């Protein structure tokens, strides 16, 4: 059913023409042939095959022809209707640094196609139909720094999936997937700086003790809209001197313990809006973070006595004059 495509690098786009919008184009030969634009700089080629279409249809199975064996360091197939990728597709690109397959219809992690990519540092598989990232598929990619998989259907990340990246991986984007918690494979990533798990449904709906214990480089953690109901007081142990930004907005939190956050000495940004907080003076500590919020975020709580939500700042100024927070253990 799927058609086969040969990508031949036919058009030479000089560096000064980068912004001229050279279109990728396809025509029907013995097979469907598409041509990508590229830019060359000191013998390295950056290839753009985005938006490939033939008669408006997706291109299907991807095969790549690289006449002259050009040294490709960056290749982009964004929104080209790629459904799958032949096994040796990237074999003649040993120096590939960046692979972008965003906005396609890929259902299985393209492990075979990527098996020769040793030096790749950035992979973007966002907005495909992936359901899992199996064990042992990326072990050889020991330079991978940035892994983007936003907007897939991920339910399973093999517990050894990132074993080859334990000291290289700095950024992971799993936003908009179907993951039920922080994957075990992520918990051992000691170089990880940015983790986006937002818009997943955590089950059980809590952040347990010690989950970030081995992630001592983490600076930014996004857990927006993950349906968490509570955060263990020891959940952020390990992040004391690294984490600068935590987002737990739009969850099911009814309170937030000051002591859970107190030892996070690097924390400057904490977004907690759109939670069903119950008003109480123990929320007063949040005020020191409000200045870091964008104006459209509002910190509100619901009075114990019922009734409509009130602004936490207003609640605290009206009710918590002499309040002394308890000491942290
Ligand atoms: C991955 O490998 C680990 C360790 O061998 C194993 O326990 C696990 O079941 C494997 N599969 C997944 C999906 O995690
Ligand atoms: C969490 O919040 C959502 C919407 O804000 C609500 O539909 C859901 O019932 C809540 N879940 C729990 C377990 O409180
Ligand atoms: C609380 O309300 C005041 C005034 O109504 C507003 O200026 C402020 O931004 C609100 N603060 C938060 C954090 O919602």
TrEMBL record:
Organism: Owenia fusiformis (Polychaete worm)
UniProt keyword terms in alphabetical order: Leucine-rich repeat, Repeat, Signal
Gene3D superfamilies in the cross-refs: Ribonuclease Inhibitor
One matching Pfam family: LRR_8
SUPFAM superfamilies listed in its UniProt record: L domain-like (SSF52058)
Signal peptide feature range: 1-25
Keyword Repeat: yes
Any Gene Ontology CC annotation: plasma membrane
InterPro entries assigned: Leu-rich_rpt, Leu-rich_rpt_typical-subtyp, LRR_dom_sf, LRR_TM_domain-containing
Protein name: Uncharacterized protein
């Amino acid at each position: 059913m799927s058609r086969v495509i040969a990508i031949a690098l036919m058009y030479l786009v000089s560096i000064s023409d980068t912004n001229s919008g050279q279109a990728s184009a396809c025509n029907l030969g013995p097979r469907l042939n598409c041509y990508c634009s590229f830019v060359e700089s000191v013998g390295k080629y950056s290839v753009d095959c985005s938006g490939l279409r033939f008669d408006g249809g997706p291109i299907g199975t991807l095969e790549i022809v690289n006449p002259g064996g050009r040294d490709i360091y960056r290749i982009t197939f964004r929104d080209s209707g790629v459904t799958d990728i032949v096994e040796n597709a990237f074999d003649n690109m040993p120096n590939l640094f960046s692979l972008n397959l965003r906005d396609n219809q890929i259902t299985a992690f393209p492990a075979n196609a990527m098996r020769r990519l040793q030096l790749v540092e950035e992979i973007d598989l966002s907005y495909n139909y992936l359901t899992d990232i199996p064990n042992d598929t990326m072990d050889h990619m020991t330079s991978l720094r940035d892994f983007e998989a936003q907007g897939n259907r991920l339910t399973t990340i093999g517990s050894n999936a990132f074993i080859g990246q334990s000291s290289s991986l700095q950024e992971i984007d799993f936003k908009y997937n179907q993951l039920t918690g922080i994957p075990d494979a992520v918990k051992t990533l000691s170089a990880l700086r940015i983790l986006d798990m937002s818009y997943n449904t955590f089950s059980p709906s809590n952040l347990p003790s010690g989950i970030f214990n081995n992630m001592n480089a983490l600076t930014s953690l996004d857990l927006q809209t993950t349906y968490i109901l509570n955060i263990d007081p020891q959940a952020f142990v390990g992040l004391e001197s690294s984490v600068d930004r935590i987002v737990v907005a739009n969850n099911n939190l009814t309170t937030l313990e000051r002591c859970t956050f107190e030892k996070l000495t690097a924390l400057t940004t904490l977004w907690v809006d759109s939670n069903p907080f119950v008003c109480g003076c123990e929320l007063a500590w949040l005020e020191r973070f409000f200045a870091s919020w964008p104006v459209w975020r509002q910190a509100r709580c619901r009075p114990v006595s019922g009734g409509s939500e009130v602004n936490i700042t207003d609640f605290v100024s009206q009710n918590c004059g002499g309040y002394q927070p308890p000491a942290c253990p």
